[in-house]
Fold this sequence. Notes:
The protein is an alpha/beta fold and 287 residues long. It has a single domain, classed as Rossmann fold (3-Layer(aba) Sandwich). 37% of the residues lie in helices and 11% in strands. The protein has a six-stranded parallel beta sheet with strand order 2-1-3-4-5-6, with helices on both faces. It is globular, with a radius of gyration of 18 Å.
Amino acid sequence: MLPWKRVLRPLAALLLTAAVATVPAAAAHAADAAPQSGWNDFSCKPSAAHPRPVVLVHGTLGNSVDNWLSLAPYLKDRGYCVFSLDYGQLPGVPLFYGLGPIDKSAEQLSAFVDKVLAATGAARADLVGHSQGGMMPRYYLKFLGGAAKVNALVGLAPDNHGATLSGLTNLLPYFPGAADLIKATTPGLADQIPGSAFLAKLNAGGDTVPGVHYTVIATKYDEVATPWQSQYLSGADVHNVLLQDLCPLDLSEHVAIGLFDRIAFHEVANALDPAHATDTTCASAFS
Length: 287
């Protein structure tokens, strides 16, 4: 086995870990579980209390169900019209999305937001994304006219300045051909490597655009978007939150914060409705 393949084996293991987390959702996705669970209901009309639909944006290797089996019902139960999409599919790769070029994924998000706004009659939407799904929408906001259609972007462990996979991607330059292989086979992964042309374009001239409220919810146990501080955004309308500042006992890492952490979900709800926000604490796990 070539040396660089031995080094990349841990990287593949991390990706497979994320994939395994989506396996239980695969059958649900095939059964079109989202509408049956009460979200992606295009007949839903936002209420006066929650006048904007919420669009959930999955992470790398996710799909429109896997990330949201917990958060979508959580928000639906609180009176929101909730929607989710699949994006970034590679030819011949079913169920596991978010692997295509991220600028093209942002175009898919743009079309989906337009569809949601047309169906609900709302003027603007709120976006909640996990991992790549918290970062990719920033391209839509910045370059595809999304700022006029989006009120807030909430990112759960977003890799806003790249994903080093606990430093593994820093080793790529030492193994000729490895970066080119990733770019050729999974461009969505290549776009997330710190220093990529995509990230340089995304972050040039500032992290944010006017008119959008940004919230980043990070965990210090993140093993993918590392160092975790790189998830934070800079800007005039940014709220950066470390989960352990809200609850020191919370041990969620990169996957868990998006899949089932109700403490993080409580902070998402606060970001979506700041006028009625309540303190997020360890007890929020039971709320």
